[in-house]
Every structure is written in structure tokens, then in C-alpha cells.
Amino acid sequence: RQRMRNFLNGAITPIKDGVTYRYLLPSFNARLQVNPKLVMRLGLSETLTPPEVGLTRAYYNIGLTTIPSGFNPANGVPTPDGTTTVGNPRLKPTRSTNIDLSAEWYFAPVGSLTLALFHKELSDIVSNTTERKPFSNKGSTFEIIVTQPGNSPDKGKIKGFEIAYQQTYDFLPAPFNGLGVNANYSYIKSDGVKQSTLSATDPDVAAGRTTLINTALLPLQGLSKDNANLTVFYEKYGVSARLAYNYRS
Which strand (E) or helix (H) includes residue 175? Predict the structure, then answer.
């Protein structure tokens, strides 16, 4: 108990860390006007998304368990003395190589139907890492499980398609000629990166537990396989109204 009192005396140790990066992001776009109503587009690009600022906050708030250290009888590994979650100031942006191909059919002055195909390869995707680290304070050392975000070495892949339709029904008799519809559906298949929640409040993350299944087969975090949006609108006589429905699987 005295070791714990020595360790938990409220001491603060400054941390100075960070990362510097420079990227070249080429982009190429081509447009082919097949006829007055049909347009084809091709896009090749490199993009990046910086990590959320909160995930880079390097602040350790270490707490100890009240259970004495010992060995886990299941695997013989010493039980940890405590757990903590912390941000990672060395996080790099998630990079993506993108291929986009679309066909746009303008079948009416205020109507179009679009089909888009896409393929993306992602690197440096942010996911959780968990490791044991020794921490010392005032002559007392404890082994703590540290859970923090890191850039995954795995390559993520995203592919799918999107169908979009929009039209204003100006050919209807008044007052219905102000009605219109805007709708789209996208199918997204993604995998390739071992997934772990980034929420520090998740009990498994806080306890440093990791799954035994191959989570690289699961979809990437934040991506639903099926996505749909439907909006019915009315624009006429100074009236502007919208009724929208959104769906994600």
C-alpha cells in the first residue's frame, strides 16, 4: 500500500512529442462528352485525412487496481497493475489512393441518372494498439496496460458503386410542377485492417482486452455496406419544403 501511495502522489510529468509530415497529392480528372446527354468521367487521386485532434492528446491519467499483482492462471502472464488510455501525438494522416469512374445521363432539362464506381486503397488507418509499459514515480514502479491509437500497418480496401437520381417534375400540371425527387443508393465493401474501437469508455478497451477473431475481415469503422438517401422537395410560389429519409445498414 505504501508503494501505491508513493506512486499516486499527484505528480505531473511533462510530455513533449509530435510528428512532421509532407505529402505530394497528385490528382487527374478526365471528362468525355459522349453525346449531349451522356457524360463519362474518370478521376485518379491521392488524398489524406488528418487524425482527429482528440486522438493526438498525449495525456496519461494512470490509476492502479486494488487487486494485488500476480499471475493469470489461464496463461501464466502477470496481471497488470492498472490501465490507462492516451492519445498519440505521433499519429500520421490516413492516406488513400482513389479511382473513380462515373457515367451521367441527363435525360431531361432538370433530370439526371448517374452511376459511379469507386475503388480506394487506404494506408495508415487509425486503430487502437494495446501494450504493457512500466511507469515509475517516487521509487515505485508499476506495470500498466496502455491503450492508444496508432497507424495500422495493414492496407485497407474500399470498393463499391453509387446510383443517383434527381429530377424536378416541371411537366406536371400546376401546382404539382414544383415537386421533385433526389435519391441515391451506395454499396460499399471494405476490409483489410484489424479493427478496434477508439472509444476510451469501451470497457474492453479500458481493460486492455483484445479480440481473438480476425477483425480484418470486418468492414472498416464508420462504413456501412448499404447507404440510401431519399429527398422529396417542393419549390414553387415562394414555398420551399423538404422531406428526407436516410438509411445506413
Answer: none
Q: Give the DSSP H or E segment for 228.
A: strand 226-236
CB 58 within 8 A of CB 88: yes
In this structure, the number of other CB atoms found within 10 A of the CB of residue 193 comes to 23
Residue type, 18: G
Helices then strands, each counted (H, E), the chain: 2, 12
User: Letter for the amino acid at 205?
Assistant: V
Per residue in 190-207, pLDDT tens?
998 887 655 545 555 555
Nearest to 62 by CA among 131, 17, 9: 9
Q: Which pTM was predicted?
A: 0.77
DSSP code string of 22-86 = -----EEEEEEEEETTEEEEEEEEEEEEPPPGGGG------EE-SSPP-B-TTT-PBPPSEEEE-
Q: Over the stretch 76-108, which tens digit does the pLDDT of each residue have?
A: 445 567 778 888 999 999 999 999 999 999 999
CA distances from 142 to 98, 100, 135, 149 (A): 46, 51, 6, 22
Helix, strand, coil content of the chain in percent (nearest 5): 10, 50, 40
Which alpha helices (DSSP H) does the chain contain, by range?
Answer: 2-7, 203-206
